[in-house]
Design brief:
By secondary structure, the chain is an alpha/beta fold. The protein has three domains: 93 residues, Beta-Lactamase (2-Layer Sandwich), CATH 3.30.450; 158 residues, Reverse transcriptase/Diguanylate cyclase domain (Alpha-Beta Plaits, 2-Layer Sandwich); 242 residues, Alpha-Beta Barrel (TIM Barrel), CATH 3.20.20. An eight-stranded mixed β-barrel has the order 13-14-16-17-18-19-20-21. The chain is elongated and about 165 Å long. The protein starts with 16 loop residues before the first helix and ends in a 44-residue tail after the last strand.
Amino acid sequence: MESFKEPNRVLTSLPGDEAFRRDSAEILRLRESLERAEMNEKEARRGFHLLSTILNLLPVGVTVQSNDGELLLVNDTAIAQFPSLLGAAVGDLTIRTPLSESNDGRTRSKLTTTEDQIVAAEGECTLLTYRRPVQILGKPLLLSGSFDYTDRKKLEDQLAHRADFDDLTGLSNRTRIQRHVEQLIHEQPGHQFGLAFFDIDNFKHINDYYGHMVGDALLLKVAQRIGSAIRKTDVLGRISGDEFLLVIDPLEGDDKLPFITDRLLQQIKEPFFIDGHEILTSASMGVSVCPDHGLSYEMLRRAADTAMHRVKAEAKGGAALFRPGMAVAAATRVEQEQQLRLAIRESRFCCAFQPKVDIRTQEVVGLEALMRLRDEAGGIHPPSEFIGLAIKLGLINDLARLALAEIIRSMVLIDEAFGAGTTISINVAASQAGDPEFMRSLCDELNTTNCASRFMIEITEEAYLATNQFQVTALPMLRDLGVRVSIDDFGLGYSSLGALADITADEIKIDRSFISNIDQRPRSQSVLKAVVGLSEALGMTVVAEGVETFEELAYLQGATRIRYAQGFYFAKPLFLEDLAPGKQLAGDGRTAAPARQTPEPRARHLRSG
């Protein structure tokens, strides 16, 4: 039997191998697909984790809401905005703006913004939320992003409140009052209401004496007291400092105003008790009426302000209804103020010098510097026309500096005309005497002249005694420089002989009210002699002011020990162009029989230097 051997033949296939190969290939493909699926799943998980991490790290609260208002997705920031959601079902929270309201035909796919006030167990917060309705996989959804707006909202509310309300009193401020008045005018044409403008009388003095904290407390109490006395329809506001505005609405006729204003002003006159102090004060009020006095806030405010200033000028503590004539007076006052400021800026002030004469020797021993204003036409105006206004406007120090500068420039002419020993008197207002800074600057200027001892500061007795700062601060500085002090206008107002003992001055000037017709007034003669005797005992030189007749001079020379005098009898105030050596003084020109010890009827000639 033949064996079957084919040693050189290679077996390459067997029955059924083709099917096996196909199955193996399929298995390999399946395996590769599974591996790719696993890789894709891992990538998807990594991507999902990355997306989830980013979503939760966003500072915005992100939510996805279903059509029925159920929350399908909430990131960590959103949960932090609602801590009560922790551990609760997502669907337990309902957004205030449901999808059915945001996903209509008009707002589909439109971004909307809302400000949501959230009240939860943890407290209140304000969210600024952006919402957009979308369609995803055929499902209507609402995507939302929320910012915690609480702190910024509070800041905005505070700023908005400050824009409309006064920080100290909580009352409406100028802006809100103006807006309210304009609304009344434009929304209710012909509607009658009143606008009252009032401020606290002498509030600056209260501030200076008690301090600003007490002053602020007073303003607050005034606001509370008036606020509780007005109707709900009235609006009270503080527009600045101690100034208040009150909208009296409605106003049932002008005849009702006196009752309203008197009642309110009486409230302010009642005592205020603050920090242990009992403070008594008052207020002045002006009232305008719409539409009678204007059809704009500014017109009504100006009218009320004008009426208030009329009250202050006449008698503080009252009220007045605006009248057209007041506007003319107010315009004149404003014009005067502007002219005064312009004159100061252009240095249109000059000094006239009133001689002080030794009535025994007829020599000019001193000069009193008196301010004069030159207008644009060259006319000369006396201090009575501008000093009071300058004090009121706080410009008196500027005038004093201009006067002192001219006096210093005139020293050479003064010396040539009257001699180097002639004293120069400078008037100082009460407000200046009590101002240490002004007095310090005045002393510095006098010191630069190298002849400060020739100067004399004139201050009224009332200002001297009432201004403690002058005696404590200014007087020692003047004494150190050798500057002397004169008490001006003694006998005017509340002067008393007893007050002389409290005055450490070098000179006292008897007011013209004592000197006028002194030769015919026995009672005044007795008082004058008493003043002279007491002044001499206290070491003060006496000067008689306002001597205008020879009879007055004769009496002073013959019946008193007064040595010095001033007045038109000797000369009217002189200007620089009059200060020429040897030039005669311009007196009144009247004559009378010469008095004893009087070589001439008046001192007519200037002394050469």
